[in-house]
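**User:**
Make up any protein.

**Assistant:**
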Amino acid sequence: MVVSLRDITWRRGKQPILTGVNWQIHPGEHWALIGRNGSGKTSLLNILTGYAWPTTGTVEVLGQAFGSVDLRELRKSIGWVSSSFLQELLSLRPTERTLDVVVSGKFASMGVYQQPSTKDRADAVTVLDWFGCSSLAGRLFASLSQGEKQRVLLARAWMGKPQLLILDEPCTGLDVPAREQVLGAIDTLAQQKDGPTLVYVTHHVEEVVPSFTHALVLNHGQVLACGRKNETLTGNTLTEAFSLPVEVSWQSGRPWLQVVSDTPVPRPLADRFS
């Protein structure tokens, strides 16, 4: 079992954030975690990685039960790509070269603090090439486009050879071409026989690429639906999750959302005050 969360409840003070969450991820599965802002996605990730402790319930990740495992060691087998990490990296390491960003993934550090071997650097170049970024190796990471940065962070995560890789809204802020490049890299990674189990977090269901097998939909801190993606990402489920009437169509293995509400679209502010 890659992940086993059983009867997870988490409260902040008296406020329930997660209630009765059960989630099992088996080898060979790749999951999308779907929910609107404030649904509990980030809280669930923090519990999954041991940065928050559930009020009740049990957590097992990669066969290790929380409470009887050194979380610092366990986290070396878990990769996490997020916009918050990107901002922290840019703030703390503004002059880092792209190749060094990728090499640092092997050591799970922000920056390279020990001398990497010739093989480490060669491996980093290979991984960059695999993500279509080999030409960026010598450039300042901060000078890259947003889409290039995200693909480099994917390469960095894969450099550490994690068993579980969490992708926390990696397409935030990307235009359509850059988004599709990132999603293409993720889809390719998911198809690798020696690749990690992927958990992709988003509120945009069209980002669920064909290689993802399952989905969990959160709503107000509770599991609204959980299972194979075609059975989970339905119009009825997502209408309830987003509090908006929607339909879902499937094209080339990806779900696409369409709003079907008759509610008038609000006029632009300029029109309101004209």
